[in-house]
């Protein structure tokens, strides 16, 4: 039996080693007929050299005893691929068991041969990926061009569609280039965390998950961490060149860019509305501000352009500002041992846009600095008749109660600064009565500025 294997080892290896055409056919990923037809190479370039030519650099002599081992590494690779154990494969090649140097040399050269085969397969996959990416970009641009031609009747949409064509084309080209570059370069990660950061993946439990494939509900892209790190890197590299990952990555980038654009446009519309609030402008001026932004090249999106948007958006702005003031008032003061700061209120009439209302404010001490807030604007009236201060006190307590509970207000409220009319109506005493607080709460203080105005005007 041993003499038989000694005479014909190369015949067994030739039957086990797959030809170059079979390797190329197995390396090509499945695709539809149109993509496969466009992806077939017309000529084999230098980077797609067949494995037989790449294997020409293998040693033909043992580096220790100079015994000829020509053709033996290829035969060993074929036998191992056919399922033979290493020791039996070496015996079948006619290598004596005591020839340790020759056996070791053949194993090393067989590993080189296997590595070069895998490199050639990966290069073929990269070439197919490049051609498929170019075809996808061409198809998308063609579809968008057709859509642009159909919409010539609506002249207002031409600029937007042209921008969409350019943006989508750039994204598709950049995505294809980025995916190809990620495949062509070697993965430099030395740990699972570095591999996840380099390939845009995340670690979940005992698995490494591809974010692009997960967002597009694509099968694949999940790798178990209970394996050798070198095997994990090889599996990730094969996944990055797969057709499903490339398609998912392109769709993910396009959708993320579109969501980012919509978010930016929504912020621009919100800023225009807030400017109107600060200037007390009419809601009818809001579309004109958006027109000015659009003519200046600012993206304002496709919705929220009518004068009704500022009215709807105001409730959201009010809720955010209310919560911010509440958080500021509830912030402990370190200088007071973590206790809350005392609270001083002020009240005065103000006229804006031919409308006179009563405005309430508040002052607290924060880090040794006085911080003032405008808390509300309301029309004060009395249910018991004109000239009484009970209606003013009710409205004041109602306004202050929006920012803190009444029990807390009775403890923290120390003073009320107002003009002479409020002081003479005993608003502070009426407010204490509603809060059921003691005399130290909401002490009325006649504003010195109002006193000086009365003295200067000799009223």
Provide structural commentary.
It is a single chain. The protein is α/β, with parallel strands linked by helices and 459 residues long. It has three domains: 2-156, no CATH class; 245-319, no CATH class; 334-457, no CATH class. The chain is built from 20 helices and eight strands. It has helices at 2-7, 9-16, 20-27, 33-39, 51-54, 72-81, 86-92, 100-150, 158-184, 192-199, 211-215, 229-240, 243-278, 286-295, 308-329, 390-400, 406-412, 420-424, 427-435, 448-457, and strands at residues 201-204, 207-210, 222-224, 343-352, 355-366, 369-378, 413-418, 443-446. The chain has a five-stranded mixed sheet with strand order 6-5-4-7-8. α2 crosses α6 (72-81) and α8 packs antiparallel against α9 (158-184). The protein is elongated and about 120 Å long.
A few lines on this structure:
With 459 residues, this protein is α/β, with parallel strands linked by helices. 57% of the residues lie in helices and 12% in strands. Helix 4 (33-39) packs across helix 8.
The total tally of domains equals 3
Number of helices: 20
Give the N-to-C terminal Cα separation. Answer: 130 Å
Largest sheet: 5 strands, mixed
Mean pLDDT over all positions: 76
- Overall outline: elongated
Could you tell me the strand content as a percent range? 5-15%
Radius of gyration: 40 Å
Please bin the fraction of helical residues.
55-70%
Please report the total strand number as a whole number: 8
Q: What strand line-up does the widest sheet have?
A: 6-5-4-7-8
């Amino acid at each position: 039996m041993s003499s038989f294997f000694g005479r014909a080892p190369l015949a067994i290896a030739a039957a086990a080693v797959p030809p170059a055409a079979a390797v190329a056919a197995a390396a090509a990923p499945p695709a539809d007929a149109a993509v496969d037809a466009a992806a077939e190479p017309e000529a084999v370039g230098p980077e797609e050299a067949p494995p037989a030519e790449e294997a020409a650099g293998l040693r033909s002599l043992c580096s220790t005893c100079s015994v000829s081992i020509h053709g033996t590494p290829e035969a060993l690779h074929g036998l191992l691929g056919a399922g033979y154990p290493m020791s039996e494969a070496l015996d079948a090649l006619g290598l004596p068991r005591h020839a340790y140097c020759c056996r070791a040399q053949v194993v090393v050269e067989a590993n080189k041969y296997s590595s070069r085969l895998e490199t050639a397969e990966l290069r073929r996959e990269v070439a197919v990926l490049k051609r498929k990416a170019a075809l996808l970009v061409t198809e998308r641009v063609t579809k968008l061009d057709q859509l642009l031609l159909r919409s010539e009747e609506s002249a207002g949409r031409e600029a937007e569609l042209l921008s969409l064509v350019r943006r989508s084309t750039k994204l598709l080209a950049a995505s294809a280039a980025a995916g190809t570059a990620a495949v062509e370069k070697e993965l430099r990660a030395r740990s699972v965390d570095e591999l996840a950061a380099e390939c845009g993946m995340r670690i979940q439990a005992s698995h490494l998950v591809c974010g692009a494939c997960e967002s597009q509900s694509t099968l694949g892209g999940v790798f178990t961490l209970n394996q050798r790190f070198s095997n994990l890197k090889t599996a990730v590299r094969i996944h990055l060149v797969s057709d499903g990952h490339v398609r998912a990555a392109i769709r993910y980038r396009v959708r993320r860019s579109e969501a980012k654009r919509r978010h930016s446009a929504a912020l621009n519309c919100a800023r225009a509305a807030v400017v109107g609030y600060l200037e007390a402008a009419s809601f009818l001026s809001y579309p004109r501000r958006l027109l000015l932004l659009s003519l200046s090249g600012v993206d304002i999106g496709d919705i929220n352009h009518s004068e009704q948007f500022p009215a709807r958006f105001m409730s959201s702005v009010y809720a955010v500002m209310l919560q911010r003031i509440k958080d500021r008032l509830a912030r402990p003061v370190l200088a007071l041992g973590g206790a809350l700061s005392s609270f001083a209120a002020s009240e005065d009439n103000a006229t804006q846009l031919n409308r006179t209302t009563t405005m309430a404010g508040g002052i607290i001490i924060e880090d040794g600095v006085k911080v003032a807030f405008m808390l509300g604007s309301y029309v004060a009236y009395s249910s018991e008749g004109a000239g009484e201060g009970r209606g003013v006190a009710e409205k004041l307590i109602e306004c202050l109660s929006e920012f803190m509970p009444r029990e807390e207000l009775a403890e923290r409220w120390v003073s009320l600064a107002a003009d002479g009319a409020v002081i003479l109506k005993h608003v502070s005493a009426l407010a204490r009565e509603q809060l059921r607080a003691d005399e130290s709460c909401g002490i009325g203080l006649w504003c010195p500025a109002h006193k000086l105005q009365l003295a200067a005007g000799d009223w």
